[in-house]
Fold each of these.
Amino acid sequence: MAKVITQIERADAALIDGLAAAGVATVHEAQGRIGLLASRMRPIYAGARIAGSAVTISAPPGDNWMIHVAIEQLHAGDILVLAPTSPCEDGFFGDLLATAAMARGCRGLVIDAGVRDVRDLTQMAFPVWSRAVFAQGTVKATLGSVNVPIVCAGAAIDPGDVIIADDDGVCVVKRVDAAGILQKAQEREAVEEAKRKRLAAGEHSLDIFDLRTRLAELGLRYE
């Protein structure tokens, strides 16, 4: 049954912003190498690094009606996340929808389908991670749902989960886990910064990461 859930729980804004600062790779590692969306999800322009609460959309292929519905449900800091009900690369989203979404404080779009008006979206600084860039238009004929559990690019996403996206791709953190994952991500960043300083000072990574013993155990010989 098609439906719109109008009330969803969201993570604390400070947690979301902290996860954005950590970035996709660090968050992915911090939560045990889970949560990544498929590698086909690429940003339409480089340099954006965002995080926000997922407003999820389940939409029929080639039909963007439910994006219009979902925009009405946006709160400031949210990210639209769309999964078509069957594979599709049509251009669901362009500059007009981005204008409407930005007016409600939307931070970006993650869509396992196509987008268009990429030049305009880039000039607007509205970040999108998509399966494709494709000018093919869509219709408004069939209902879908908003703020329901979806599977987007291979990742299970519930409304209100935290979406992190940057040049490395897209990662999801379950809303209830956000605080714990942020702590682990920050701890990981501190460890990496210490290692970065040692590497910059000329130390060998084989020593910093304690790799020599294992190499010898596996039989690597220096001649």
Amino acid sequence: MGRVIAGQLAGDGFDVAVAYVGDIDLADATVGEIKGHGRHGAAFAADIADGEEASALFDAIDDRFGHLDVVVHTAGINHPVPLIDLDLADFDAIHRVNVRGTFVVNQQAARRVRDGGAIVNVSSSMVRFAPPGLSAYAASKAAVDALTRILAKELRGRDITVNAVAPGPTATAAFLASTPAEEQEQLAALPPLGRLGRPDDIAGVVSFLVGPAGRWVNGQVVYANGGFV
């Protein structure tokens, strides 16, 4: 999803910095797509939940691009297990990435995004749908919703919008690889539109939120799920 969003924003005319952990080949491929749109792109390795690494990441972006207008935070992990069986180490890992990571990135973004810019977090429709097995994940994304709404208010006077997009089940490579075909079919049947989301569906919402048409949308969680909930 992050790769498609990066490509969408490059197509919208943005130069794009990509933060990644682990998969440098995917990061490099994403940068290649950005450059294919005629924009500047660069990839930076960073653990976004580590305050020092995140600060160094934003320093490197400042040095490379000179300024920062938009931050889109897509990093997140899940470990679907019923609450009664979930190992607390897995709970901590989910919340380190999804909650602490969002907090750290938003803190840096709030300090560095130029006035008139935009911050977008990725939440989840699972907060509202509340399916069994996703207690830790849904709780972490509920925290993302709260952080988003509060930061929007705290940035009063700077003309910076802060929103979250909350996808439903979306046919990313990770989702397709980890979800049995039967479950995919069941989830695809739930929205009135009768299909899974596609990464470009979510990228289009992000494009709207950070573009001129979305300037009056602020402090909102936008559910992008085809009517899933």
Amino acid sequence: MTARALVTGAASGIGRATAVLLAERGAAVACLDVNAAGLAETAAAIRERGGRTHTLEADVTDLDAVEAAVAEAAAELGGLDGVANVAGVGDFTGDVSEIAPEEWARVLAVNLSGPFHVSRAAVPHLRAGEGGAIVNVSSQFGLAGCLASPAYCASKAGLIGLTRAMAIDHTEEGIRVNCVCPGPVDTPMLAWTDATPELTARERARTQGRNLSGRSGRPEEIAATIAFLLSDEVGFMSGSVVAVDGAWTAG
């Protein structure tokens, strides 16, 4: 069981569900996000359940801020043995001829450089504790393409590659690294599709029938997968990519 965990993107959605679940299972949880109000709500939910938490307001794209936040988390919790890289952004940005270069850079900075920054800062603390686990949260669109979303798809596919590289580098020293690829999940992030109704309609038509479960996932279902991958129950599992997507990518 992960005893001391850091969860990014903890202010809402999958990140919040993961932080709450880990706390319910007895972990002390450091919650990191740029959204101070959302962090406060997550911390309140954890404390209402009798859990222990520490909040950290930081932007995962800022390496200096991340290093300071991870060091604070380790000091507050007495070390780290689990990290969940959940923070991410998504949007229909247009194809490669349409997306603004600054938007391309922003999406990759959050979705790919962010987990790199957090992992870079956290690995020394995991080593000091003689091992642990990191779970990166990618997407079904890291495994399959999506309409008008080149930056999102590239960042999430890159995160799968980063996961595998990290597993090769760190598994022998007792640090397991795995990746979860959620399908559509009922979170605030899914609501961005409302701002682009034409593209949303086109993408839904293109992918009609792929989600065989017939519903969106729940944040708690993804959180349960993350908690499982962080646990000692899967000590032989590293470098794996787990789709939790209602069979979206099965066919």
Amino acid sequence: MARLKDKYFSEVVPELMKEFGYRNVMEVPRVTKVTLNMGVGDAKTNAKLLDDAVEELALIAGQRPKVTRARKSIAGFKLREGMAIGCAVTLRGDRMYEMIDRLVSIALPRIRDFRGIDPHQFDGRGNFAMGVREQTIFPEIDYDSVEQFRGLNIVIATTAKTDEEGRALLSRLGMPFQTN
């Protein structure tokens, strides 16, 4: 069992039940999935950039990402419907917990001038989204082999009904939120 999953069931669930007054264990919010998304705008002219992005995201996530394609044509961006423009991967189960654990304990502390994550990045329903400016904060990526720095979006979907419940869940899982 993943280290963070064990912590969730042994420590986080009892704390959240006490704090929010849940009467049933099934009411306690939990993480359902983690989605990693990497957009590669230059892939329309250079297909090798997309291959590199897929390779790097596979190293970070531990599973092969799917290539995302443009839904519609946009002449201003010289984009045609169906062109490959990025890659995404959805993690569930133990891989999801491992990803959150690596993000919180290894990757986020490696960000330059890191002062914590903005606690207002919730969507109103307890789901959390954040952006990372470069993929090199993950130790799986070899810094010397990176040709281009790319950002990626990380979305953590939870069963929390409110942002307050989602924030309490993620902060107990170790997410370093800023304190005002």
